């Protein structure tokens, strides 16, 4: 560490700026003295500050701090700086920028020089979020669709995950192997998994219709990927891809429960259902809450499954906000409206999350009383 | 006595059936993928779907690069994913070390920010990010779209929040006395970090690296917009097997298997640590 006395820094910068060093120094010292609660020299009757002593003290103090303590205090900031910068440029600046863009008429003609794009106030929001325009209607429909899809996916995924976690919490031969195996859908790349399901759901050449026909559940080939059944196809694929994560987290929750609790309950004569209801469920509650919030957020943002299985235009029955925004921005090349819609989407999600936490806090408070 | 024994046996059988069902639900789609990758296009299109191929053929694997230049996409994905992995490891290690070992002003705020960025929708960033890329290119002449560095930068920043939190948890599990001891013995802090903490944290760092690799390998949304013909990743390339003129499901399934294999190998080697990271990320959040 090179030790530079701050005073010499001040001297050099004064010379550089063409200022009177002595005047600057005196003003500086005075202000620092005031800051530190005024060291007045008793010998100095006029109440003048004894510049020399203070300067000495000050330079001593700053020297000590400057070389060792200051650098130590800055170390953590230096360490997180690169990560902060990266996130600044990818998360925070674009977020602000998106907010600005959402008030602009930014389209294919103006995108090359975005600063010159005309400000049009709220009209992007009005067009995207009204029940009169076609776009507004599609957006409302897409929000309904995504809510419907999320409700199904989360509920199904949760119960399958819970069942699997309960099964895998018991000891049996090959448990480690099965635990590893069930993670397969989770780690399979989205693109691979949803392309595979797209193949399975093909009407004529897919295996699903064949199996259902053989079993006798349907009498005709069902067209899954066009029309009003599309959303169910996506739900099935998403549940298959998503439940292992739920199972994994719930399993971790189950393992943190003290086994003595179950033994004690058994001795007291509680049956299996009672043990589940009064021990397992309450202990899983916090994990469940986090899981559901995470799942709501992920499913409301779902893009991959819809885009891979149904293409960039999934049709009226399976349109979700993400696909709508993507099309609006990058096919119709209206970036301003796209940005406005994505901000509305974020606000809706924020409301849901806050409402969810609020609801549980109120319930918890009521229970606590 | 006998009756109770019977009940127990039935319970056991039911239990194993349930486990079997679970495994079947997971594996059956893969079975279909695997068997279809050995079928000819004629068989897939012309005959009734069957679990076992009529005529076993490896044509799909031989011709996997024929219609779609999937090997080029593999190369792109490898470059981008490795770049992301290395960048994430370096930045996440520094940041996680800072959060784990220093008490500084803004530390809690920073941690909360890390958590909250994970909650925001990707689509929210995509449009302004795209406009930003265009702006950077026009003002600084630095091309960002359709380049490796643009994608690597994007993905590093994406994987950072989770990577930092995961690595922080790992570093927290290494007792602080170890680096204090090293510093008393005359190590500087930097030396203590590189000589003592990093070797101890190797598994955690590997898990973080693999996590970011998988993230970059699988990402679709940003890759759709920000990559072009020269940087298209394999996740997008898979979609090209099905076109308006022809549908090569067999080749696509073969390509799907090839795409999954690297991820599978990486995940299995580091399964324990990644799973731990996932669990603590969800439960401690």
Sequence-ordered SSE layout with sheet pairings:
The complex is a heterodimer of chains A (369) and B (285).
Chain A: H1 6-17, H2 21-35, H3 51-101, H4 123-128, H5 134-168, H6 175-181, H7 184-187, H8 190-200, H9 207-215, H10 230-255, H11 259-267, H12 272-300, H13 304-310, H14 321-330, H15 335-368
Helix pairs in contact in A: 2-3, 5-10, 5-12, 8-10, 8-13, 10-12, 10-13, 14-15
Chain B: H1 2-36, H2 41-46, H3 59-62, H4 70-101, H5 107-117, H6 122-140, H7 148-172, H8 176-184, H9 189-200, H10 202-218, H11 221-226, H12 234-237, H13 249-269, H14 271-283
Helix pairs in contact in B: 4-7, 4-10, 5-7, 7-10, 7-14, 8-9, 10-14
**What is the class of the largest domain in chain A in the CATH system?**
Mainly Alpha
User: Helicity of chain A, in percent?
Assistant: over 70%
Secondary structural class of chain A: mainly alpha
Number of strands of chain A: 0
> Architecture of the largest domain in chain A, CATH level 2?
Orthogonal Bundle
Strand content of chain A: under 5%
Largest beta-sheet details of chain A: none
CATH superfamily of chain B: MetI-like
* First and last CA, distance of chain A: 60 Å
Query: H/E element string of chain B?
Result: HHHHHHHHHHHHHH
CATH superfamily of the largest domain in chain A: MetI-like
Task: Compute the number of structural domains of chain B.
Answer: 1
Please indicate the count of domains of chain A.
2
Examine the secondary-structure arrangement and name the CATH architecture of chain B.
Answer: Orthogonal Bundle
β content of chain B, as a range?
Answer: under 5%
**CATH topology value of chain B:** MetI-like fold
Radius of gyration of chain B: 24 Å
């Amino acid at each position: 560490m090179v030790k530079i006395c701050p005073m010499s820094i001040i001297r050099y910068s004064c010379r550089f700026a063409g200022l009177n060093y002595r005047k600057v120094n005196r003003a500086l010292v005075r202000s620092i003295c005031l800051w530190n609660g005024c060291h007045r020299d008793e010998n100095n009757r006029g109440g003048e500050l004894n510049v020399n002593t203070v300067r000495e003290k000050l330079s001593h103090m700053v020297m000590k701090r400057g070389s060792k303590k200051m650098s130590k205090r800055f170390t953590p900031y230096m360490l997180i700086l690169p990560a902060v910068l990266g996130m600044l440029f990818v998360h925070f600046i674009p977020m602000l920028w998106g907010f600005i863009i959402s008030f602009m008429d930014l389209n294919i003609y103006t995108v090359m020089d975005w600063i010159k794009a005309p400000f049009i106030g709220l009209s992007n929001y009005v067009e995207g979020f009204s029940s009169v325009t076609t776009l507004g209607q599609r957006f409302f429909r897409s929000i309904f669709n995504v809510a419907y899809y999320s409700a199904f996916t989360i509920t199904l995924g949760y119960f399958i995950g819970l069942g699997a976690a309960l099964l895998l919490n018991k000891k049996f031969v090959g448990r480690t192997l099965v635990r590893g195996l069930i993670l397969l859908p989770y780690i399979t790349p989205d693109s691979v998994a949803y392309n595979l399901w797209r193949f399975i759901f093909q009407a004529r050449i897919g295996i699903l219709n064949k199996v259902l026909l053989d079993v006798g559940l349907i009498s005709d080939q069902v067209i899954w990927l066009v029309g009003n059944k599309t959303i169910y196809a996506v739900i099935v694929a998403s549940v298959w891809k998503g439940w292992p994560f739920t199972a994994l987290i719930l399993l971790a929750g189950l393992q943190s429960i003290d086994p003595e609790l179950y033994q004690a309950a058994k001795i007291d004569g509680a049956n299996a259902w009672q043990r589940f209801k009064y021990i397992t469920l309450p202990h899983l509650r916090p994990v469940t809450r986090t899981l559901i919030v995470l799942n709501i957020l992920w499913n409301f943002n779902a893009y991959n499954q819809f885009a891979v299985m149904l293409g960039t235009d999934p049709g009226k029955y399976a349109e979700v906000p993400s696909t709508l925004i993507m099309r609006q921005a990058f096919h119709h090349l209206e970036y301003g409206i796209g940005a406005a819609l994505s901000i509305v989407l974020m606000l809706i999600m924020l409301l849901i999350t806050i409402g969810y936490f609020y609801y549980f806090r109120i319930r918890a408070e009521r229970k606590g009383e | 006595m006998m009756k109770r024994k019977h009940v127990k046996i039935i319970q056991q059988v039911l239990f194993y059936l349930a486990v079997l069902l679970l495994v079947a639900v997971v594996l059956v789609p893969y079975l279909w993928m695997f068997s279809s990758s050995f079928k000819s296009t004629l068989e897939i299109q012309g005959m009734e779907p069957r679990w076992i191929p009529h005529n076993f053929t490896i044509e799909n694997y031989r011709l996997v690069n024929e219609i779609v230049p999937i090997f080029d996409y593999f190369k792109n994905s490898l470059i981008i994913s490795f770049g992301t992995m290395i960048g994430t490891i370096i930045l996440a290690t520094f940041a996680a070390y800072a959060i784990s070992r220093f008490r500084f002003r803004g530390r809690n705020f920073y941690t909360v920010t890390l958590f909250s960025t994970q909650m925001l929708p990707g689509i929210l960033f995509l449009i302004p990010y795209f406009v930003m890329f265009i702006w950077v290119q026009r003002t600084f002449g630095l091309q960002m779209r359709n380049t490796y560095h643009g994608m690597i930068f994007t993905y590093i920043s994406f994987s950072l929040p989770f990577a930092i939190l995961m690595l922080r948890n790992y570093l927290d599990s290494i007792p602080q006395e170890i680096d204090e001891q090293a510093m008393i013995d005359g190590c500087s802090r930097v030396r203590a970090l590189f000589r003592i903490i990093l070797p101890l944290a190797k598994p955690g760092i590997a898990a973080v690296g693999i996590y970011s690799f998988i993230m970059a390998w699988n990402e679709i949304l940003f890759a759709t917009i920000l990559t072009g013909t020269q940087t298209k990743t394999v996740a997008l390339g898979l979609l090209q097997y099905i076109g308006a003129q022809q549908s090569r499901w067999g080749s696509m399934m073969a390509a799907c298997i090839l795409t999954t294999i690297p991820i599978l190998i990486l995940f299995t080697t580091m399964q324990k640590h990644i799973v731990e990271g996932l669990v603590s990320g969800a439960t401690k959040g």
